[in-house]
Each structure stands twice: as structure tokens, then as C-alpha cells.
């Protein structure tokens, strides 16, 4: 199914191979030799005695995820993979962002970094995902799986990683720190929230049900898990973009510290990708009980949702992102004498990308 | 203005002022105060508020508007006072049609019959400053004509001077006075805005620009040729009152989506555009069968300072993540001030607000209880200066929360913001 599997070597299986963890354990930080202070703000995570960054709440969470993944594979289950070829490029790309900053046009980059930080903060909503009655909705039991731990610490750890908790900042504050270090506390464009809330055509929509025959709460949860997983995987482009832009000494005032922040965030995101992968894989390997007491292979539902989401995210969303970025670029270049030449050079640096013909999760009839 | 009118209005305000003064300073009242008898204290507040309400209903116009403003400031006034004066939001008796005709003809410079093919004698609605009539233009378009009560602008100066004088006397004699004069200044500013209907027309146009075609927001078109400072002619739009759940459901509308639409509209105005309609009580909101939301009445709109939306977002966000130092930072950025610079009070306020949520954690809904808690905490700590912009925004979310609850749902601000994220 996958051309380029995601890297998972960092996940070390628990030495005692236990599969049940308490809420507190999954949120346990362990000890740090030194806390992470990001541009003056205490953030989560910290450094061990060798100066290596350690992600927050991973003392038990990482081995737990590795154990659940191994257990799945040992029982003949398939750990689903998303092809990296499906990840659309960040817009503007690294060269385009550097070009703009070189010409003193920093607003689009500052805006992009601010939007990323705000969106990360909204990641906290994962703690509000409603869980279905698994005993009723699934034929097979879920004891000792990641699924059984979603509401027992995995969602909460994820939410805290993204938005921070108490006096410890999370990814929201870390992206802000990276931005402020690199661009020396820049003025935040006033239209950031307008960009996030959409410039047009947005109104509340009832989510279309893809599998009305299954419990609605279960369907919503699978859709949410799939959506967040894809956002996390697609963020890989954002990380490489952020790292390249913020580590460029030509435009970044603090290339080392700013880009290190991006690396820390990226490392924190790995457990998110992995627990979501294993939870969805566990669902795909189970049998779903429909509302009228029939059964449906979990694979059909999970793959169906991933296919629908990937089709939309690889086709419509890159264009939307591009349109928004171009709009903000147009505004930022207003009044500049060399506006035309910058725009021409900007266009010449464009990344040519087309989504692959298939998502790897096509419905069975299409695969045949 | 005629002398008898001037004398009567001055006397009426003075009489009310003296009555209230006596009520609070009467020895038995003091005694009860000293013993901490809150029931008695509330009764005194209620009697005082009733006297103010009676005065307002008799004098109408500016005084009613002042009472409406007081009814939104539970951060300043005691709860029983606020509760009694909330009655001012209910409909005010309408003016006679001959008066309406006279205002329209004076303002638009032509006989009514040459301006409108039809003009209903009975108003669709009447409020503190104006009433609205259904009419039809000569070309057949149906319109709503908002007509200001005559003489209001003349009375504003006099009434405000009288109220101001009463406030000054109160502040002079009371050892620990409530700061009424800044509040009065705020009321004056809002009144000036609301009395000029050309400004209301500009506000409506500005809000319309925030939302594009097909975004489900209906702002009635303004017909400027038939409008002036005291007459506002606009497109007649119809819909179902937003709190009429039965009618909404009968029209096949999903109440949850109605609430989500409403939240997204106001969140977008406040956080993103920084310009918003600041009076979203249920009478100003309707829903059409295609689920478009109609927003009426742009008399009170507010332009927020740069960065206010982001500051508000940071406050909500810090409450959600229980980050106390971030809450204090956000309060400060929003313009909250303490007399001695001590931020512990702000922290206490934030904790009390969070403590009012169902879970003890802020989940994005700015409820009436939380706003009450905020204002009560501030009232107990009068050294805290609350930015008026924040009061208005808080009031808007209180209205929205009330509407959402009436429809059986929750008005989650963060969810409405996150819908686009």
C-alpha cells in the first residue's frame, strides 16, 4: 500500500510488554535535567543529562504505543501506512519564503507561522472527542489496545502537547517562540484570525455521514482520528519548511534556537502519529456492529474515510492554501517599487506538484 | 425646547434622585447594611431601581436608554438593580401615527404619500428611541422604515445634564461612590451613535462587507434616498425569530446548525474583523427557511482596537489551558487595569470565571453565569478598571449563550473559531 513508510524506529517497546496503562502514566513526564524555556516562556519537555531533548509525557506513552503496535502486528494485523507522496508542498515554499524575506516582505511568513501556532492550539479540541460504546459497536474486545486508552490519557496528552497546560506552553507557544526568535518579536498581521476563520463561503455544515449504518459517535470518532492523523502527517512538510526558513541566517535572527524549536515540536508529534496509526489500524482489523445488528469489516470504514479525506486534502486544500497565500502576498507587496520583479521571481520558484492518482485506500471495487 | 418641559424633566430627575438618596441613607437602611442583612439590602436596591424605572418609563427616550445601559453593567451595579432595569429592554409604548408622519415628512422633505405607496399606521416594533413601520416604495419594493421619536436630540443634552448633576452630587456625598461619571460618558457616546441614523446606515454597509455573497448572513439593504439622521428606510426582510424553536423546526431547520451559524457570524465579526453589531438580543435576529441568518439593528456597532481580537483569543485560550500567567497577560493586553498594578486580582477573577463552568475548566462557552461571575468579582474589587470594549463583547456572548441555551445547545466560542482552523 505504501511507497515510503513513515519512520517508526524511535518507538521502543516496553521492556515488560504490558498493554494496560493508567491515565496518570500516559501523562507522566519523567525527569528532565533541564526544562525547555522557549524565548522566555516555560514550555513542556526538557533535556536529559546529555543535553538531548525529551518530549513531554512520553515516559510510558512511547513504550506503550510501541507495545500496542507490536501486539497488533503479532496478531496478524496490518499497521496502516500513508504514502509520503500524498503530502502536498507547503506554500509559499522555502525558496519563495526566503525570497520574500530578503526583500523585507516578512508579513506572509510571519502570518504563516502565526496561523500554524493558532491551529496547533486548536489541536486541544481532541480532548473533547466523544468516545463510542466500544463493547456495543465492535464485535471484538479492545482490552490492552490503544483504542482502550484514547480516553485514558492519549487524547489528553495530545491536547496538552498541542496547546500547553497550566504554566507549561505547548506547540502553540513553541511556534510563537520560533517566530519571535527568528523575526525578533515581529508585529502580528491583523488579519491572522480572519485568515483562519476563512474569507468566504464558510457556514456551519452538518457533517455528511459516509457510513450511516454504523453508530454515529463511532463514525465521528473515526473521522476525527483519520483527519487528525492526516493533518499530523501532512505537517511533515510544515516542519521541513519551518526548519529550512528559520535556520537560514540570512533571514533569521536566531537560526539555531528558532530551528531547534521546530525540531522539538516535530519530535513531540511523532507519538501522535503513531498512536493514531495504531488506533485506526486496530479498528480496521475489527468488525463493526451496525445499528441494525449486522456487521461490517472495520477496514471498509477506516479505509473509506481515509480515502475520502485524502482525496479532498490532496486536491482542494493545496489550492485553497495557495489562493490565501497569494492574497496575503499581494497585500504585502502593495506599494513596493520592485513589486513586479518580486512577483515574477516568486512565480518562477513555484513548486510543481500534482497529487498521485490513487490514495492507497480506494474502496475494494476501485482497487479491483 | 419649551420651559415647562425643561422644568418638568429636571424636577422629575431630581425627585427620583432625592428619593433614592433617602432610601439608601435612611438610618434603618444603614443599620441593616451594617448587620449585613442581604435580603433587606436587596429590597432597598429593588425599590431604588423601581424608582429609576418608573422615571424612565415616564420620561422615555434617553433615560430609558440609560437604564438599558445600566442593565448591562452588572460589573458596576448591584444585581437586583440590574434585574429590575432589564425590563427596559421590553417593548416601549408606540407613538401616535400623526407624530410619525410629521417626522418622516420633515426629515425627507416631502409628503408621505409622495414618498411611499403604502405606509402601515401600526408599527412593527417600538423601542426606546424609535419605532419601525412596514411600508412600500412607489416602485413596489417593500421596506421597513425606522422613525426616531421627535425631540430626542433636544432632550439628550438636558437629560444627560440632569443625570450628570445627580451623579456628581452622589459622588460628592458618598464616602465610597460607584464611579458613575465614566459610565455616563460611555452612555453619551453610544447615544450619539444611536441617534444618528446615517451612522447606522454606514454600520450596516460595513457589516455587509465583512460577509460575502452566499455566506448566509442577511444585512438589510439601506435605501439612502429615503433616509436621513432620524429616518432610516431599509429592505424589509422576514424570517423566524431566532428563539422560536418550534417555528424553526417546523421550517425544517436544524437548531444545532442555527446556533453554529450564529456563533460563527459573531465570532468572525468580533475576533477577525474587529467590527461588530453589539446588540444581538433575540429581537434583532431571525432565521430564514434557507438557514440564512438575518441580523437587524446596527445602531450600536463597535470598532475594536487593533489586536483586541487576538487578545481576546489569547484570554479564552489561556482559560482553556488553565495557564494563569497567560490569563493575566491577556487581561492586561485587553486593557484591564488595577489601581495599584497588582495582578493578583486579575488572576482571582480568571479563576472565578473558570470555576463557573460546568467542568471547572473553560471549554469555550462564555456563559451568562461566567460573565456574572466576572462582573461580580470586579464589583467586589472596584480598583479594577474594565475596558468598555470588553463589557460590550461580554454582553454579546451573554446574549448568544442565552439564545443557544433556548435552542438546546451551547455557544462555544472556541469551537466557532476553530471551525475554520
Q: Strand tally of chain B, please?
A: 13
Helix-strand pattern of chain A: HEEEHHHHHHHHHEEHHH
Q: Could you give the count of β-strands of chain A?
A: 5
Radius of gyration of chain A: 21 Å
Overview of this protein structure:
The complex is a heterodimer of chains A (368) and B (421). Chain A is mainly α and 368 residues long. Chain A has one domain. Helices cover 52% and strands 5% of the residues of chain A. Chain A is built from 13 helices and five strands. Chain A has a three-stranded antiparallel sheet with strand order 1-2-3. Chain A has a two-stranded antiparallel sheet with strand order 4-5. In chain A, strand 4 and strand 5 form a beta hairpin. Chain A is globular, with a radius of gyration of 21 Å. In chain A, 43% of the residues are buried. Residues 1-10 of chain A have low confidence and may be disordered. Chain B has 421 residues and is an alpha+beta fold. Chain B folds into three domains: 1-86, no CATH class; 91-237, Phosphorylase Kinase, domain 1 (2-Layer Sandwich), CATH 3.30.200; 239-421, no CATH class. In chain B, a hairpin with a 4-residue loop joins strand 3 and strand 4. The A-B interface holds A 118-119, 121-122, 124-125, 128, 160, 163-167, 169-170, 172, 188, 190-194, 196-206 and B 212, 214-216, 254, 256-257, 260-261, 264, 267-268, 271-274, 291, 306-307, 309-310, 313, 317, 320-325, 363, 414-415, 417-421.
